[in-house]
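To the structural biology subgroup,

Please find below the input and predicted structure for Tetratricopeptide repeat protein, which we are adding to the shared reference set this quarter. The sequence is reproduced verbatim from the submission form. If anyone notices a discrepancy with their own records, reply to this email rather than editing the shared folder directly, so we keep one authoritative version.
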Amino acid sequence: MVLLDLIKVLLHQKELDQAYESIQELMGRDNVAEHQKYRLILCLGEYHIRKQDWSQAIEILTGLAEKLQGKREAFGRLFADLYNLLGTAWYLSNKFLDAYKYYSLAFQYSNRYHETDLLVARITYNLGNTCRQLRFHDEAKEYLEKARTYFIDLSDQLNLARSLYLLGIVHRNMDDLENAGGYLKQSLALYESLEIIEWVETAKRVYAFYVLSYDHPQEAIEELRSQALILKEAKDFNTLALTYARIADLHLESKETSEAGRFVGMAASLFEHVIEEPNKEYFAHVLTTNAKYHLQINKYEDCIELAFKSAEILGKMDLDREMAESLEIVKSAYKAKGDTSKALETAEQINSVLFRTLRPQVMP
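Predicted structure (tokenized):
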């Protein structure tokens, strides 16, 4: 149906009001086939995702999944698309285990029912990215490598650059600095060739913090400070706060405590006085860095309070490995102040959190 294809184009171009009107018009017609009605519901779910109404998108798409449970064989490709959209809605809601569940189901259906195409490539990329977020390192590497191959075959340079960028982060998380640097440099070169300036600067920041800082921490700090000026001018205050925190992290590693305090203070001030819609993950990172700073200056009670706040946010986002790292700071603070019982209690909490990081089984 031509109008259905037009709706997809409108959604892609973010002409959301016009897309919604077209969806409603088609849904009201009597001559729309059953499979086309299901596609319209998918479009409605995507509309709500693009409107950042995650809960409404999840409700609509979950309802469709329940309606089609007995028709999996007939609508395999639609299920792949449906579960991919559900994964995206959960991912953007910062519920990464739910995102992992639905992207995994989408991956199973996409590989079962049809040949490799852009949908398969995107699902594979989304699953790899979610595994990266959850720190399922080996899986993230496997899926992102597959996505990279798919995007090469499809001549999709933008998504190839994104895959290389994420592979760089995954290899850095696996302490493979050589491959991390190689992938990040490849992604940077592609972004530059595509003239996507925002992502050029993002790749530079990530390379500086994750790779350059290992052997050349002062050069990394200078690069991040230059990037901070760009972000300030662009009024991207969430990313600016994260960048200040990362500068503070590098100063803390070099025991340059006063400079670390200055930058983490600037980051915290942005969230307190400037940022109206905080990025929760970035805010948690700032709290973690602030906690490490207070641990380094022996202000243990402040350290514990900040680290617990960070752990609470990260736990709600299913980022249990990062939550455990925040709790490690709490444990260190308790040990430093001589409170052995609290340190042991926190260690037990850490073990409980890390137990949750075991990869869940996903059944179709």
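Summary notes: The chain has a mean pLDDT of 94. Residues 216-364 form a domain with the Serine Threonine Protein Phosphatase 5, Tetratricopeptide repeat fold (CATH 1.25.40.10).

Regards,
Lab coordination
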